[in-house]
Amino acid sequence: MQFTDLKAQYGALKQSIDARIQRVLDHGQYIMGPEVAEMEQALAAYSGARHCVAVASGTEALLIALMALGLKSGDEVITSPFTFAATAETIVLAGGVPVYVDIEPDTCNIDARLIEAAITPRTRAIMPVSLYGQAADMDDINAVAARHGLVVIEDAAQSFGASYRGRRSCNLSTIGCTSFFPSKPLGCYGDGGALFTSDDALAQAAREIRVHGQSGRYHHTRIGVGGRMDTLQCAVVLAKLERFDWELQRRRELGQRYRERLAASGAEAGLLAVRDDRDCVWAQFTVLVDDRATVQKALQAAGVPTAVHYPKPLHHQPAYAAGHDAAAHPCSVRAAQRVLSLPMSADLTEADQDRVVAALVQATRTPAASVAVA
User: Fold this and answer.
1) Rounded mean pLDDT of 315-334?
2) Domains of the chain
3) Is there a cis peptide before residue 310, judged by omega within 30 degrees of 0?
4) H/E element, 254
């Protein structure tokens, strides 16, 4: 059983993917070839944002967004401590200071109610993370930002295609950033990402920053990075777009099926909440368990692969802990001890899903381990 079944996905899209890649090999424009602009136009239309800027990775998208805003040394960016390191990494690389706000225990997304208290005169932006494929409370976060003159950057590395109150992730704030890492809901065959905005000036800044700050060939108007997305990777994304809507629907169906099967088993208390005004595209299907190591070992013995997203909150990470209270953000600390991600992809079969559920139920019935209250 595959944790993310990319082989089955390729099998379904082989003809289109191979043809798209061959086209790039034939024209030979491996950097900023025509597929880059084609993908940008397609994804901007899909998201509803005016601009899509293809970049080298989701991490690069966040960094370029902060650089386009003109983040200065010492500027603070409020974000979640329960996320992949790239969220804080980019803030620090841009010269800023990450300020952590705890998460909602039932969604693992940043708790919008706690943000305003964390704002100081040095706060420049808020960077919520749409974790596991479900958008954070973006309207509430935008309202806080508007009251204080701040910019909101959605870290949507896991949520491209998700809906929130009738709008799509990456078009819910001033800037949205996503990743096309192979295991994401929309992935390429290497690293890739994109920045979305409807602000013309920010889009232009991002386009210049991704090519070393050039506004014209060898004319550098700002500090930049080598942040372009390869033409070949854009070709893969374009091919995958052909069945993306089907894949999203399948992810939603499989997520609901997981929830129903686990609830019927008596394990529903370990399920994350999905708010009524949004959906989840389940970049990871994550549950909460006690004695995670024991549960993982039992699942491994049953042939079920698992992963942990994420085992340590950022304020406990050596590179990002300085100046932060290790005892703070208890919901993030508790989540890091309990989260466990199960196999999920659009090509997961129902038979394999049933095997996962049966193995998890068996593993959590032991005295030492149980799916616990969220």
Assistant:
1) 96
2) 6-242 (3.40.640.10), 244-363 (3.90.1150.10)
3) yes
4) helix 244-264
Q: Residue 307 is encoded by which pair of tokens?
A: 């992963």
Separation CA 17–CA 236 (nearest Å): 6
Give pLDDT tens digits for 53-68: 999 999 999 999 999 9
List of E strands, the chain = 51-55, 76-79, 97-100, 123-127, 151-155, 163-164, 167-168, 175-179, 193-197, 214-216, 219-220, 285-288, 339-342
Measure the CA–CA gap between 306 and 360, rounded to whole angstroms: 11
3-state secondary structure 273-286: CCCCCECECCCCEE
| Residue pLDDT, tens place only, 6-56 | 999 999 999 999 999 999 999 999 999 999 999 999 999 999 999 999 999
Backbone angles phi, psi at 318, to 5 degrees: -55, -35
Instruction: Check: CB of residue 96 under 8 Å from CB of residue 322.
Output: no
Q: Cα torsion at 239, 242, 245, 248 (round to 10°)?
A: -30
Q: Report in angstroms the alpha-carbon separations of 61 from 10, 34, 167, 180.
A: 26, 20, 21, 11
Token output for 43: 């994804």
Backbone angles phi, psi at 53, to 5 degrees: -120, 110
d(Cα 45, Cα 84) in Å, to the nearest integer? 28
Residue 177's nearest CA partner among 371, 47, 9 is 47
The answer to whether 358 touches 1, Cβ cutoff 8 Å, is no
Q: What is the model's pLDDT at position 366?
A: 59
Q: Say yes or no to pLDDT of 316 above 50.
A: yes
Q: Which residues contact 268 (CB under 8 A, 6 or more apart)?
A: 259, 262
CA distances from 4 to 40, 139, 258 (A): 26, 32, 15
- The mean pLDDT of 106-131, rounded to a whole number, is 98
CA 360 from centroid of its chain's CA atoms: 25
Please return the burial class of 327, using the count of CB atoms within 10 Å of its CB with bins 0-12, 13-18 and 19+.
exposed
